[in-house]
Amino acid sequence: MNDHIYYAMNLNSNAFFAALSHEIRLRSLVLLQSQGELCVCELTHALGLSQPMISRHLALLREAGLVSDRRAGVWIYYAINPELPEWARTVLTASTEGVQNQEPFSADLHALQDMPNRPGAKCCA
């Protein structure tokens, strides 16, 4: 059973690049691109930001069609929208490859990897 909610693809290039233009959204997308699906709590921990701030930016990414979400109990998981057009996937892949070893992106990944009690455990920060 696929629990993902897919949003209709009305991806326009201006909305796509505007979504990438904010540091929090870009950092979130880089983590999602490199890690696959992540819980809001994982993004909160990795980016060192509050849950409301992360959720607000994820909602903007979802509204723009860049990410999809699924609910599992009280947790919401996000992933890159699999229905993105190929050109958008190419941009995200190239962007992730280009910045993943730079700060703050590499620090985000290290923080995520060091996160205790990652989802799958009973408790999630």
Furnish the topology, listing elements before pairings.
Layout: H1 13-20, H2 23-35, E1 38-39, H3 40-47, H4 51-63, E2 67-72, E3 75-80, H5 86-99, H6 105-113
Antiparallel strand pairs: 1-3, 2-3
Describe this structure in words.
The chain has 125 residues and is mainly alpha-helical. It has one domain (13-112): Arc Repressor Mutant, subunit A. It contains six helices and three strands. The protein has helices at 13-20, 23-35, 40-47, 51-63, 86-99, 105-113; strands at residues 38-39, 67-72, 75-80. It has a three-stranded antiparallel beta sheet with strand order 1-3-2. Strand 2 (67-72) and strand 3 (75-80) form a beta hairpin. Helix 2 packs across helix 5 and helix 3 crosses helix 6. It is globular, with a radius of gyration of 14 Å. The two termini are 27 Å apart.
